[in-house]
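>> received
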Amino acid sequence: MNYTFILIGLLLITFSNAQQTEHSVIDQKIKAFFDDFHQKDSTKLKTYFEGTATLQSVIKTKEGTTKVVDESISKFISSIGSIPDSIHFEERIFKATITIDKGLAHAFVPYQFYVNEKLSHCGVNSFIFALVEDRWLISNIIDTRTRDECDNSSN
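>> returned
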């Protein structure tokens, strides 16, 4: 009977460690993505996305309504690669909340976006990752953007 409890305990510890490892992989993948994003490295950025990945933003229109806007991944990547060296941008990300179930992961990542050291906007990125052939790839990014409610906290 004691061996059963020991075995169950070891299995729970093993499962917990595996989950932590996967969380670390996703967290590191997000950090690496933003490193390459800041370097304007379009070649490396392409490697993060699954073939049918989507990119969306939840925005407020001038009329005050909210809508979802789609952008193609290829257009996004080429636009990042074409930003002149004179423009410095940084998306400062804060602690990600990551959930994982089998081959699906979700990361909720608050951010503040700076252009030439000036706060431009803030919001949250929602990343959906899929485990494709033993690699976590981005399947979707959807973000929010606001200029009105930004502060200097780490959310």
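>> The first strand starts at residue 49 and ends at 60.
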